Amino acid sequence: MGRTQKKSGSKKRWSTNRILMIASPIVLGFVWMLTPAESAFKQAATWQRLTSPGPLSAAHASLEDDCAACHTSVSGVEPENCISCHANNAALLKSQPTAFHANIATCKECHLEHQGREHRPTLMDHTTLSYLGLRQLNDGNPSGERERVRRELQMWMRHVGDESLPHAGVTRDELILNCVTCHGNEDPHVAYFGDGCAICHATTAWNIPQYIHPSSSSTDCMQCHKAPPSHFMPMFMSKCAKMLGKKPDSVKQCYVCHEISAWNNMKDAPWHKKTMSHIPSR
Ligand code: HEC
Ligand code: HEC
Ligand code: HEC
Ligand code: HEC
Ligand code: HEC
Ligand code: HEC
Ligand code: HEC
Question: pTM for the full model?
């Protein structure tokens, strides 16, 4: 599998990793600033004179006659208006990928409106996240630490060449994000591949169409997989291995017991032994 094997990569790749490691936690570690700096809505209270650009989403249909629920004159769509109704969304704040809502200062970038009833008003935009992160670093102190980091990141984003990007599915803007802060819980590689998810993954979908898994007759499973804690219990080799009729030299020989289709599929095991729940416990 091309990508994973390039783990130790070129010097350029290394510098990308380094930026990820040094810069990203900082970008998302600070409190979001209170007001978005340049909002189109700050220019003029155009919305008051305009008709609605389109019907609201189904969830907000009841606000069709209450433009001011979301729009404030002069400044436009204010996050405070959204927050007044959505402040206490415990599920949103508890879930790792959306916990950033706790201190975000803008909503409309990802929650478009006026697209009609059928349109769910949520669109995840990782590039927006990057810009929000940079904006958040701007605390008005031109000689401060945050400003220094912000300038360094912007410089890096401007100068990194296409050839240094890990792949075409991720942009230089997105690379400043620290993926694990939001997606660590979804990591099926149990941290084996490190924090830089973007080295292999795009931000649109986790699957990698061009990826081909090594064959089940290969023997280097350990290169990419870590055995779960159960495998290091004293009984594991003596009982489980025996029950499967397998005699691996050590737990490291995953391929002796496992198929590649699913961890529950054991090699040569009759169907009723294919999941642990079907293996008698004594
Ligand atoms: C549930 C919140 C909500 C309500 C209620 C709402 N809007 Fe909006 N409106 C938005 C959001 C968010 C945007 C900006 C994002 C976008 O383009 O979808 C927007 C954008 C607009 C724009 C486009 C502004 C521009 O310059 O692009 C106009 C005009 C507008 N709204 C008018 C109205 C009118 C008139 C009403 C009442 C009939 C209304 N809106 C009710 C949320 C709302
Ligand atoms: C007057 C109260 C009110 C305001 C103002 C308001 N909302 Fe809502 N919103 C609701 C209600 C009620 C629902 C539907 C029930 C729910 O999901 O909580 C909803 C649903 C949503 C949903 C889920 C939609 C779906 O279909 O999954 C999102 C996202 C959302 N609002 C974002 C916003 C944003 C962004 C703004 C500001 C532009 C905003 N809301 C302004 C009351 C409001
Ligand atoms: C960077 C993009 C982004 C920004 C900015 C953002 N959100 Fe969200 N929001 C999301 C995503 C993504 C989801 C989760 C959608 C999912 O997984 O179902 C979400 C979910 C929500 C939900 C729950 C929707 C539901 O289905 O129940 C609400 C309410 C909400 N956001 C309100 C807000 C408000 C209010 C703001 C501004 C203070 C805001 N969001 C800013 C991306 C964003
Ligand atoms: C501040 C939080 C945050 C950061 C940082 C972040 N994401 Fe996301 N990401 C989200 C949210 C929210 C969604 C919407 C779906 C969800 O709720 O999981 C999402 C969706 C995704 C999806 C689509 C998932 C699906 O099943 O449709 C992928 C892939 C993804 N992100 C990859 C990345 C990568 C790679 C990085 C690092 C470059 C990254 N994300 C950084 C919050 C974040
Ligand atoms: C060295 C490359 C590499 C890195 C780094 C990496 N992954 Fe993966 N990941 C893969 C490959 C290859 C697949 C299999 C893709 C497929 O089957 O289409 C995968 C699959 C996934 C899947 C889908 C699993 C499934 O069964 O559907 C998720 C979710 C995922 N990775 C999350 C992450 C997260 C989160 C990170 C960062 C903490 C990360 N990955 C880092 C290579 C990597
Ligand atoms: C070059 C890296 C690499 C090697 C070598 C490798 N795998 Fe994988 N394997 C992956 C990635 C990436 C995924 C997809 C992400 C995930 O689910 O962990 C995966 C997924 C799996 C899955 C989960 C399938 C599913 O959808 O649930 C099993 C089982 C598996 N591998 C077994 C093996 C076995 C057995 C070996 C040795 C014969 C092996 N792998 C060798 C990278 C590798
Ligand atoms: C002696 C046979 C044997 C060997 C060798 C072996 N396993 Fe397993 N594995 C099992 C059995 C039996 C189960 C089901 C019971 C369990 O979850 O512990 C299992 C389950 C798993 C699961 C699923 C655990 C879960 O919680 O869903 C993973 C992942 C796994 N093995 C990875 C590995 C890896 C990686 C290796 C090599 C480093 C390996 N195994 C070596 C027999 C083996």
Answer: 0.83
